[in-house]
């Protein structure tokens, strides 16, 4: 590869400044520290970089020893998408649970406490919240990451979340502009398309982003989606009409525009990451997020040189790159001077309190009030009907109720069952029969995640409930399917605290 940049000139520094790369390991590699010295201004952290709060604080201190104003970003939504607690599950419920409670002050408090924990570890930019209106229940990547399908609800909670997070001195990055909710395609794998009118977009998708902008969101993340009513040719991340014309000019947004991960197939598989990055900056983006999957010095150099080359050939105006770099530096200055509100010492219990309030508990028809449900006193068999996790969530984060039930009912046994390639029918029935056999005489607790999107889960539950109508069903995704079971508990998310709240109900614990 021909290196086009010297590492010291203004153009090269600006090209490095607009990158938000990741890396592997729990300490900063030498190449990353070297690039920080040459102009790199941001670093993105993922679950692979985090072992403990103390280790994370040491890592961010290592980065700041090289550059004291570095932006340290993380994808910490709470709920299903957690990096701080990637191996244990989050202490905070996600957006859908907060939307189910619909207490904007609670949302603000949860976001503030999450922000306080991030700030204590040296993180100052959070790629959250998701402002997407989950209007398509088939959505495979947003789901419980959304506050809900109601536009006004999503808007007021997005604003509360931004306010709470930034009151702790952590910049919010509201995503995924102009809205990723009305799609049945995951942009990690392909390019989604949203075919609705500009009027629908203005009233539905854009309303939560207007609320976020009004609340002072310091950053906005673009979506890798095609929205023909706004731009029939370019996905939002690469669209000047959407990033500059709509977000900047029409909505009056003046903060940092960050791209979603450029290695996602929606961009990498169609434009390639180098060309995609040049087009994104030209369209109005200010920061290129890359590093979820591509995380080494080579990718930083490739993108740096692609940007420098595009300026030198006239494809990318130098002033556009300089403007983008200055917006990155402006956000860094804000994080260094941000006021941290003195209120909100809500402590570790705020997440569990929110998860308890988010539960929807329904008794089976004919059994009356769920309050009459007789709590389990013997250890049950927990059958987890497990879908393939989407990339945003990852498969390393545990979910379910078994771990929490083991504490409350020692001796609880669990098993995981899947039939992801099935369309319902026999494969789902097979999973159900396998769960029945494994359970033996124990009471069954069946745990599902988005039953409505997985016909095989429906088939498995049919088998379980036919043979064992006293089965308790816990839905930890979007509760779109009709509640059934001796008791049906909708947690509105799969965070650890959501599992704890459900386990308390099942075991009759007094925590609730």
Protein described:
- It contains 18 helices and 14 strands.
- It has 512 residues and is α/β, with parallel strands linked by helices.
- The strands form three sheets. The chain has a six-stranded parallel β-sheet with strand order 2-3-4-5-6-7, sandwiched between helices. Strands 9-14-13-12-10-11 form a six-stranded mixed β-sheet, with helices on one face.
- Helix 9 links the parallel strand 6 and strand 7.
- Helix 14 crosses helix 18.
Low-confidence stretches: 1-6
**CA-to-CA gap between the ends?**
61 Å
Fraction of residues in β-strands? 5-15%
Estimated radius of gyration: 23 Å
Structural class of the secondary elements? alpha/beta
The coarse silhouette is: globular
Q: Give the overall average pLDDT.
A: 91
Count of DSSP helices? 18
How would a crystallographer describe the biggest sheet?
6 strands, parallel
How many distinct beta strands? 14
Helical content band: 40-55%
Describe the strand arrangement of the main beta sheet, using strand numbers: 2-3-4-5-6-7
Brief descriptors of the model:
alpha/beta; about 500 residues; 6-stranded parallel sheet; 18 helices; 6-stranded mixed sheet
Task: Summarize the model shown.
This protein is an alpha/beta fold and 512 residues long. Helices cover 40% and strands 11% of the residues.
């Amino acid at each position: 590869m021909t290196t086009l940049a010297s590492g010291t000139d203004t153009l090269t520094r600006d090209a490095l400044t607009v990158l938000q790369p990741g890396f592997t390991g729990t300490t900063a590699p030498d190449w990353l520290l070297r690039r920080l010295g040459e102009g790199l201004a941001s670093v993105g952290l993922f679950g692979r970089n985090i072992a403990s709060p103390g280790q994370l604080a040491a890592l961010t201190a290592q980065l700041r020893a090289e550059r004291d104003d570095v932006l340290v970003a993380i994808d910490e939504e709470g709920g299903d998408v957690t990096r701080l607690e990637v191996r244990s599950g989050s202490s905070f419920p996600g957006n859908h649970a907060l939307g189910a409670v619909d207490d904007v002050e609670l949302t603000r408090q949860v976001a503030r406490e999450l922000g306080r924990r991030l700030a204590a570890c040296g993180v100052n930019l959070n790629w959250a919240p998701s402002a997407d209106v989950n209007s398509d229940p088939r959505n495979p990547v947003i789901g419980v990451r959304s506050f809900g399908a109601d536009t006004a609800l999503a808007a007021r909670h997005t604003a509360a979340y931004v306010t709470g997070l930034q009151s702790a001195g952590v910049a919010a990055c509201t995503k995924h502009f102009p809205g990723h909710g009305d799609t049945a395609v995951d942009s990690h794998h392909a390019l989604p398309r949203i075919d609705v009118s500009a009027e629908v977009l203005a009233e539905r998708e854009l309303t939560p982003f207007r609320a976020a902008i009004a609340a002072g969101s310091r950053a906005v993340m673009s979506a890798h989606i095609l929205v023909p009513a706004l731009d029939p040719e370019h996905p939002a991340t690469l669209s000047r009409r959407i990033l500059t014309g709509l977000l900047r000019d029409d909505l009056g947004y003046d903060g940092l525009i960050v791209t979603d991960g450029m290695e996602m197939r929606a961009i990498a598989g169609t434009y390639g990451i180098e060309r995609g990055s040049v087009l994104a900056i030209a369209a109005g983006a200010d920061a290129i997020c890359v590093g979820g999957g591509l995380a080494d010095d080579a990718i930083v150099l490739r993108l740096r040189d692609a940007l420098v080359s595009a300026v030198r050939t006239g494809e990318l105006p130098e002033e556009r790159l300089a403007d983008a770099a200055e917006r990155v530096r402006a956000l860094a200055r804000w994080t260094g001077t941000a006021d941290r509100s003195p209120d909100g010492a809500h402590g570790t219990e705020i997440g569990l309190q929110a998860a308890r309030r988010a539960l929807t508990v329904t008794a089976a028809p004919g059994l009356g009030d769920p309050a009459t449900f007789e709590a389990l006193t013997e250890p049950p068999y927990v059958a987890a009907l497990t879908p393939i996790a989407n990339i945003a969530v990852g498969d390393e984060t545990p979910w379910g109720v078994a771990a929490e039930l083991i504490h409350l009912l020692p001796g609880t046994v669990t098993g995981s069952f899947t039939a992801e390639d099935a369309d319902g029918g026999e494969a789902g029935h097979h999973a159900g029969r396998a769960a029945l056999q494994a359970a033996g005489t124990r009471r069954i607790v069946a745990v599902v995640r988005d039953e409505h999107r997985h016909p095989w889960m429906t088939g498995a539950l049919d088998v379980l409930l036919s043979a064992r109508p006293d089965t308790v069903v816990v839905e930890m995704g979007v509760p779109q399917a009709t509640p059934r079971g001796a008791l049906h508990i909708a947690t509105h998310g799969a965070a650890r605290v959501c599992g704890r709240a459900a386990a308390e109900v099942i075991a009759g614990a007094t925590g609730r």
